[in-house]
TrEMBL record, chain A:
Organism this protein belongs to: Streptomyces coffeae
Principal subcellular localization: membrane
Mode of membrane association: Peripheral membrane protein
Protein name: ABC transporter ATP-binding protein
Any GO MF annotation of the entry: ATP binding
Subcellular location: Cell membrane
Keyword field: Antibiotic resistance, ATP-binding, Nucleotide-binding, Transport
PROSITE patterns referenced in this protein's UniProt entry, alphabetically: ABC_TRANSPORTER_2
Protein's UniProt keywords contain Nucleus: no
Residue ranges constituting the ABC transporter domain according to the UniProt record: 14-253
UniProtKB/TrEMBL annotation, chain B:
Cellular localization per UniProt: Membrane
Pfam families: ABC2_membrane (PF01061)
Name assigned to this protein: ABC transporter permease
UniProt superkingdom: Bacteria
Boundaries of every ABC-2 type transporter transmembrane domain copy: 21-208
Transmembrane segments: 21-41, 47-68, 99-125, 131-158, 170-189, 216-242
Keywords: Membrane, Transmembrane, Transmembrane helix
Tagged with keyword Transmembrane: yes
Membrane topology according to the record: Multi-pass membrane protein
Transmembrane among keywords: yes
Taxonomic path: Bacteria, Bacillati, Actinomycetota, Actinomycetes, Kitasatosporales
TrEMBL record, chain C:
Record flagged with keyword Membrane: yes
Subcellular location: Membrane
Protein name: ABC transporter permease
Domain of life (superkingdom): Bacteria
N-terminal signal peptide: none
Regions crossing the membrane: 35-54, 61-84, 90-106, 118-136, 142-166, 178-196, 232-250
InterPro entries in alphabetical order: ABC-2_transporter, ABC2_TM
Phylogenetic lineage: Bacteria, Bacillati, Actinomycetota, Actinomycetes, Kitasatosporales
Length: 329, 254, 267
């Protein structure tokens, strides 16, 4: 893969500065403005697999649309491999592959190969190069022996794999995967993750939007949390939890009531929850407090106990609040 | 009767929201423009009646055809056909009510056609026998609804109904004597033509406009008779289909 | 040069879609007895009007005009089939590709002008003689060329309208029908263009059908080759202008949608 028309490799794959997008909705007296992206800054290094995690309406898809040039920003700038999406959309289109979830976006009456041929031609690939590329991709996504079948008859997982092949037909350096596994069964989703892993090995940059914590943890180098059009944090999946040691918790079984009372009164204890089957969970605000809690429990003769690092979900809920996955109105 | 009225209103509401259904209201004036221009160019004022009336019957026919085809396949797609079948209202009544609404929308086409002939060519179509004219339009609309219920049953039974739907337009305009009276068609076509209610409607409409209405009651009886025959056979067919549905439990593969 | 090659390949692979759609719509039998039969009935419907007017010249005029008209009706179906792109959810992906939309859509519905050309030729050569319009074998290649030119140049008019219908896809059938009915009225299909007021004539001159139909009538009347070539030339020019206008319309659609967020992934 050659470097795209002389842009230095020092340029990040994606560089977003003060990016905003406002939608006008309704007409006349009912018209209102909805802020989908609120002046965000984001940098994704080359070769990185970056997760964008957030509930529906967080602004993930809006960001993807701006990066693949189907939507203009209201303010700020976005560059892909150094090309500005507003000033030089054609260069951006040439270096970006788009894949979105669901089973739309393919031509159902065409077979898999004809679909890839068309999308290849649209990206300026043709002739022997196209044939080689299409063969290789069909092999890679496991559709080589179904290549001459109409896409209408494909299962959802097969369509999704064809979608990924479609996004890669022009050999893009940057891939935008927008909720690629939505609606996939677990086996297909697992296969999909190993395909993403291959993309990493090839040095491609991937921006993956999802609201699936496990998926983000499994494949991403870094995860950016989004909500209401803003970025909350960007961390490695492990660091995101570690950095939130303030959110460490202790779990223990068969805790006497007196000890529960004592723990509740410690300063720096965020929450005490009774889980099922006599289990107690204590959220603490720092490692010091965690040590104090453990001390109280040991003194009370509790033998079954341990510290629990927050899962990505806990982190997520911490940042976004207990609103969970509710869609913003 | 309440069921019939409710179905009638429902179809009207549907027609307003769906531009495709009202597209005959847009195309009818253009057809008038085409037909009247041919008559005027040929200096044949006697041709005006046909030229103004043909688009009305064409609209009536194509609209009912469109609706008959869409009615059942759309209901099937939306999964509402099963729901309608399950309601106590007689299904055939629902279909007939919805189709009658469609037919009355097409009557607006006549006003449009008349206006086009007058405003673009200064041709004023006067109606010699208004009572016969109006009775003929009303009976034709009902006959159309009856015929269309037969068509919708046929469409359910035939999977390639969409292609069929497209095919049933111009051959019937020809057979129906819309522009060229049946009397001027080749002799062997006439018996066939008389089985299509449009042929009686177009003859009677022309007669009510231009001259002696003659045996107008024979024509009216033929229109109503053919309409009723269509409605009855349609209802019987739909009934048979529904019995099969209840037995096999699904419409999905019909 | 390479841009031209790329555009050619886009049209070519996009045409695969046209073939697939055509196969899904018709079998050879339903095309012959369904579509072709219906179109021949349409030509007959208008041509019998000539008989009713008791004028063989009228019948002659109407059968030629309406035979050529059939490929126009079919070419204008591009307005409807372009709107299918919206239903398939492929529009945002097309917009995200570096290719120009006009070439995608040009290839996308090519089945219509091709099928329309065959329909028109069957009507001209098969139905025409029944109404007294006969052709010599030497005239047939010229007819094939002129009918193909009619279908393709009218297809370009349809593409222009398709660009607008993409953002109002509910209106697709109305726009397609109104489009061909206007052409049927003013382009010399049923009555000469000179029948209409001058300003209508000016509009008619901008439509390729007016010129190709005049050329076909010229062939029937054994007019000189130069005259026919001139008419065909005007049709080529008109078709090219409409194609250019369609390209601009598609680009504007894309710019407008990009500004207002009309390309939705989840659609």
């Amino acid at each position: 893969m050659s470097d795209v028309d002389g842009v230095g490799t020092a340029e990040p794959a994606v560089e977003v500065r003060g990016l905003a997008r406002v939608y006008d909705r309704g007409r006349g007296r009912n018209s209102r403005q909805i802020t989908a992206l609120d002046r965000i800054d984001l940098t994704v290094a080359r070769g990185e697999i970056r997760g964008l995690l957030g509930p529906n309406g967080a602004g993930k898809t809006t960001l993807c649309k701006i990066l693949c040039t189907v939507l203009l920003p209201s303010a700020g700038s976005a560059r892909v491999l150094g090309h500005d999406v507003t000033a030089d959309p054609v260069a951006v289109k040439k270096s970006v592959g788009v894949v979105f979830g669901g089973d739309r976006g393919l031509y159902g009456r065409l077979d898999a190969r004809a679909n890839l041929n068309l999308w290849g031609a649209l990206h300026g690939v043709h002739g022997a190069a196209l044939h080689r590329q299409v063969d290789a991709l069909l092999e890679r996504v496991g559709l080589a022996d179904r290549a001459e079948e109409r896409v209408d008859g494909f299962s959802r997982g097969m369509k999704q794999r064809l979608h990924l092949a479609r996004g890669m037909v022009a050999d893009p350096q940057v891939l935008l995967l927008d909720e690629p596994t939505s609606g996939m069964d677990p086996v297909a989703a697992h296969d999909f993750r190993s395909l993403v892993e291959q993309l990493r090995l090839e040095g491609r940059t991937v921006l993956l939007t999802t609201h699936d914590m496990a998926e983000a943890e499994a494949v991403c180098d870094q995860v950016t949390l989004m909500d209401k059009g803003t970025l909350l944090a960007t961390e490695r999946p492990s660091e995101l939890s570690a950095g939130l040691s303030s959110l460490e918790s202790v779990e223990a079984e068969d805790v006497p009531e007196s000890a529960v009372g004592e723990i509740s009164e410690l300063s720096g204890v965020a929450d005490v929850k009774r889980l099922s089957a006599g289990r107690l969970r204590v959220d603490t605000e720092s490692s010091d407090v965690t040590r104090q809690v453990l001390q109280v429990l040991v003194n009370a003769g509790v033998t079954s106990l341990g510290t629990v690092r927050p899962s990505l979900e806990d982190v997520y809920l911490h940042y976004i609040g207990r609103r969970g996955m509710a869609v913003r109105s | 009767m309440r069921v019939f009225t409710a179905a009638f209103r429902f179809q009207l509401a549907l027609a307003r929201r769906k531009p495709d259904t009202v597209h005959v209201l847009v195309t009818a004036p253009l057809f008038t423009l085409v037909f009247v221009s041919i008559g005027v160019h040929a200096h044949r004022p006697d041709f005006t009646a046909s030229a103004v009336l043909a688009p009305v019957l064409m609209s009536l026919w194509s609209l009912a055809l469109l609706t008959a085809g869409d009615l059942i396949s759309q209901d099937r797609n939306r999964g509402t056909l099963e729901a309608i079948v399950a309601t106590p209202a007689r299904f055939a009544t629902v279909v007939l009510g919805r189709l009658t609404a469609v037919a009355s929308v097409a009557l607006v086409c006549f006003a449009e056609s008349w206006l086009v002939a007058w405003s673009c060519f200064g041709v004023v179509l006067t109606i010699a026998h208004p009572l016969v004219f109006v009775s003929c339009l009303v009976c034709s609309s009902l006959a159309m609804a009856g015929t269309a219920s037969l068509l919708s049953a046929a469409f359910v039974l035939m999977p390639s109904a969409r292609v069929l739907q497209n095919t049933l337009t111009y051959p019937f305009y020809l057979l129906g004597g819309l522009l060229v009276p049946v009397a001027e068609l080749p002799g062997w076509l006439r018996p066939l033509s008389r089985l299509v209610f449009l042929s009686w409607s177009s003859d009677l409409l022309r007669a009510s406009v231009s001259g002696p209405a003659g045996h107008w009651w024979t024509a009216l009886a033929a229109i109503v008779g053919l309409g009723v025959a269509g409605a009855v056979s349609g209802a019987l067919l739909i009934g048979a289909i529904l019995r099969r549905v209840r037995r096999t439990g699904t419409l999905a593969l019909t | 040069m390479s841009a031209l090659t790329s555009s050619f390949h886009v049209v070519r692979y996009s045409a695969a879609n046209a073939v697939a759609d055509f196969r899904a719509t018709y079998t050879w039998r339903s095309w012959t007895f369904g579509w072709l039969g219906r179109m021949l009935a349409q030509v007959t419907f208008f041509a019998t009007m000539g008989l009713a007017l008791h004028s063989s010249a009228s019948a002659h005029y109407l059968v030629v005009g309406n035979s050529v008209m059939t490929c126009v009706v079919e070419a204008m179906t591009v307005v409807t089939s372009s709107a299918w792109e919206r239903r398939q959810g492929t529009l945002p992906l097309l917009a995200a590709s570096p290719a120009r939309l006009i070439w995608v859509f040009f290839g996308r519905s090519l089945q219509w002008p091709v099928s329309g050309t065959v329909t028109s030729l069957v009507a001209l050569l098969g139905l025409g003689p029944l109404f007294g319009v006969t052709w010599s074998p030497g005239q047939v290649p010229v007819l094939v060329g002129l009918v193909l030119l009619t279908a393709v140049s009218t297809y370009c008019v349809g593409l222009f309208l398709a660009a607008f219908v993409l953002s109002a896809s509910n209106a697709r059938n109305i726009v397609s029908n109104v489009g061909y009915l206007v052409m049927m009225a003013i382009c010399g299909v049923q009555v000469p263009v000179s029948f209409w007021p001058d300003w209508v004539g000016v509009v008619a001159q901008s439509l390729p059908l007016t010129h190709t139909l005049a050329a076909v009538r010229g062939v029937a009347a054994h007019a000189g080759a130069g005259d026919i070539a001139l008419r065909a030339g005007w049709a080529v020019l008109a078709g090219a202008c409409w194609l250019g206008a369609a390209a601009v319309a598609f680009t504007r659609l894309q710019i407008h949608a990009r500004r207002n967020g009309h390309f939705s992934f989840a659609e």
